[in-house]
Amino acid sequence: MNFFIVDDIHLTYRIDGPDDAPILVMVNSLGTNLRMWNPQLPLLSRTFRIVRYDFRGHGTSDVPTEPFSIERLGLDLLALLDTLQIERAHICGLSLGGMTALWLSAYYPDRVNRAVFANTAARIGTVEMWNARIEAVRTGGMAAIQDTSLARFFSEAFRRNHPDVVQRFGEILAAINPQGYIEACTALRDADLHDMLSAIHAPSLILVGELDPATPPSQSRELHSAIPGSELVIFPQVAHLSNVEQPEEFSKSVLNFLK
Predict the structure, then answer these.
(1) Helix, strand or coil for residue 116?
(2) DSSP-assigned letters across all residues of 25-88
């Protein structure tokens, strides 16, 4: 595992795949870490050099002492590209990672080849919802939101049939520093990217789960309508972490689009 530094914050990253392959940067969701993308490695790392990282406040990256925004997360991603001397890359982000990918694609289009926006939206949730979640974590720690978060991550059928996977993501969620999680929730609470969607001209693929309660298909259709020439795929009977519930279909969709 390696790290790069932005404003004295150490951010962890990892690289997998052939040295000379096209680069695909994958950005994880709120409440997870770079291991979220493990299901995609067997297929995608054959064709791409995959760069993953833990955004600030999550995984093994540093927890910031000040609030941050989606813009700050986008600039962190830009700093990663600069650190690795990557002029252009494919970008795939899910949920909060998807919003980060939207921001980068709009403001730094010369750095993005093709973009995959998975289970995300121009605006996620409401101010009231995020304030309630922030207060729950502030008073009760990560345990206070674990059950509800896992219920958003995975469909009822998946939770019933794959308790080992659900438990593993519960452990990842529990290990996140509460302050880092709170600051990420604050960034999501304050973010509205509607005005910048028309600036995205990279070939774009939008993925969503039919049962996603956090970023439902209606919001993916909104992205699809706003981003010129984009493609939309809806996975049936899948919730928020579509890459985990349907790893093969997710990976094949990404591979076919990027190739």
Answers:
(1) strand
(2) EEE--TT--GGGGGGGHHHHTTTSEEEEEPPTTSTTSPPPSS---HHHHHHHHHHHHHHTT-SS
Q: Could you give the CA distance from residue 36 to residue 29 in angstroms, rounded to a whole number?
A: 8
- Please tell me whether residue 200 adopts helix, strand or coil conformation: coil
Give the pLDDT confidence of 25-61 residue by residue, as tens digits. Answer: 999 999 999 999 999 999 999 999 999 999 999 999 9
In sign, the C-alpha dihedral spanning 26, 185, 76, 214 is positive
Domain hosting 141: range is 2-258
The CATH number of residue 239's host domain is 3.40.50.1820
How far apart CA 44 and CA 17 sit, in angstroms, is: 8
pTM exceeds 0.85 for this model = yes
Cβ-count burial of 248 within 10 angstroms (0-12 exposed, 13-18 middle, 19+ buried)? exposed
- How many domains is the chain partitioned into structurally? 1
Query: CA-to-CA distance for 101 and 79, rounded, in angstroms?
Result: 13
